[in-house]
Automatic annotation (TrEMBL):
The gene is 109583939. Its cofactor is Zn(2+). The active site is at E220. Residues 548-579, 630-667 form the EGF-like domain. This is Leishmanolysin-like peptidase. The lineage of its organism: Eukaryota, Metazoa, Porifera, Demospongiae, Heteroscleromorpha. Disulfide bonds join C552-C562, C569-C578, C634-C644, C657-C666.
Amino acid sequence: MNIITVTNVMILLQPLFLVLYSSSALLELAVGEWAPLQIQPIYHHTVDSLNPELSNFVKCHLFGPAIDWINGALSVEKLKHSSNDLLLESHCPFGYYVHPDEDNVDKRFCRNKCDPVSYCGPIPVDEKYTQGCTVCIDNATFINCYDKIRTSSWKPRDRTNYVLHVAALNSSACNLMGVVSTGGTCKQHATNDRPLIGYINICIERIVKKEQTIYYILQEIMRILGFSYRLIPYFRTDLGFPLMLRDLNGLPLRDKDGMYLLDPLIINVHMYNNWTDLFPNHFTKILKLKAVVREAKKQFNCSLIKGLPLEDKSNGRLLWESRLMMGDIMTNYWDNSVPVISRITLALFEDTGWYKPNYNYAGTLHWGKDKGCGFLDKSCKELSKEDSAESFCNNSVLQGCNSRFNGMTICTGGVYYKYVLPEQYQYFYDEHAGGHSPLIDYCPYYSNDNPSTSPFFDDEVVSSNCDGKRCIVHNNSWNVTVRYHNTIIPFGASCYKVSCSKNNLKILIDDKWYACKENDTLISINITKGVVTYVGELKCPPYERFCHARDCVNDCSNKGVCVNGHCYCHPGYYGVDCNLEYSKRYFGHCQHICNVGVLTYRRHECGCWCDCAAALLWGYSGYTCIEKVPPNKCTPGRCRQGVCARTNGGKSFKCLCNEGYGGNRCTTKL
């Protein structure tokens, strides 16, 4: 059976959609006003009953900042709904429903009674978070059907448009290796299918207080909001129509086994025909969503991309291929570093039709950046022959630079496996040898583990200490001569002090500045220190990437995203340069939710309010101080010795002078 997408044949399918959706529903789906996503967490007693320190950590240091980050990154379209939309439906015994009204298949009734307890995934939900029971007493004729509607004592917070139930149950999934949390969708909007209620169950034994833990939670939140195979069949077009064909009840099509039929024009198997010399053809599943393809073309600088490869070792989860997207939050592999939420990942949320992402929240994924089409369709064995010590390696050169040039890396090849590697992943002569992780197709790559310097080198010539320095790639090996004894030493990179100014890059080596005049030029080094002579070459890095990557204070301490000189901190961090970590004193996410505003606190809760008067100095206002104020007269240099503050809602300005200066423009020395 051929599945046809609505995107490509919208006109042909209009009559079908008019059957599936009433005119009022279509009007409700019309593109309208958007509002920030507002997730309200509901904590199960298993979280509240943890010891106070751990419970606070889960609420205010994991879920608090993760929720606030995603609330700032995504907006949702305002649709007509009632408070009941955020209440869970009561469950029927054995999950068996009846539909007495053939004209309204969304109206479901239980036979005779409802379950006393309703569940969201494995989490038993308190009655106050559920709707009333709808039952039919007569099973044969479906008469005496009525709603046992009750008024819930719980009301969601103002502007809430998603409810997240959080628990710490010891479920069977927590016994599986590597599982930190599980999650799922419990209720979707009746009109546009956007998820409204979801759950996350954390495996408390796996929750550790380390930097990466919050990103596992953020990844799970992204999954239940839309980043999953289960939700793709419900995605919508820009006009609000289903992205994939539906049945006459408006539901996604399924096969005879009850599995969703995924449109081959959205997800299909693609063959790359330039993989290796011995195995030129490589097959992989790719995702062909419009915004994802658009951002992938920008990321890899390849206009030929038809879709982005998906991970085939994901245990059924929707993840990007780690070999291509290593370090992105929606991959299996982060290389022991803080992951990036890339533009490609945010683009998938745009493709859902439910969200509008704020791309200012996206970080730069340096892995694969501007590597060209070959980075996607060639194996890492082929790429290691042409790559300049940033991505893949072949063990002949051990050292390299990370993608931000602020640290050294080391080649991870040379791992011996007890089993024979798949033929398409055999990169060495020994069929048991490969890189250290199957999750990245056994590729040897330059890892963030910092290597040590060879004892043959003087630290002024070659150093692995990048504190206050930048990493520069070498060209082939060094020739080290001690008196008349010559030694060839393969050393792929080292760290030096540099100077970037007016499109000129200079590198300081042994108290002498060497100039890089253009990208990819080589600098010849010939230095004699006592009886030792060092001869080698350095590769000039690409100027734009190398010199313009440090526009923010302290490069946002590597814990934030630099956008136009302003740091957008990763969840869990705050401050001008993102160098401060949330503490119990500030109840975690309050520092993040107010962006650059002033905070007020409510004791014993992760609640906070924002006073954005101070944020106007930066040009932001709104409920959480993240809305950009329209431009006014605060032009650069307006206040010579002070700061230009926006007043009157951003419509006017006032100069706040530095100490020792005064006047309307802070030009008068006091």
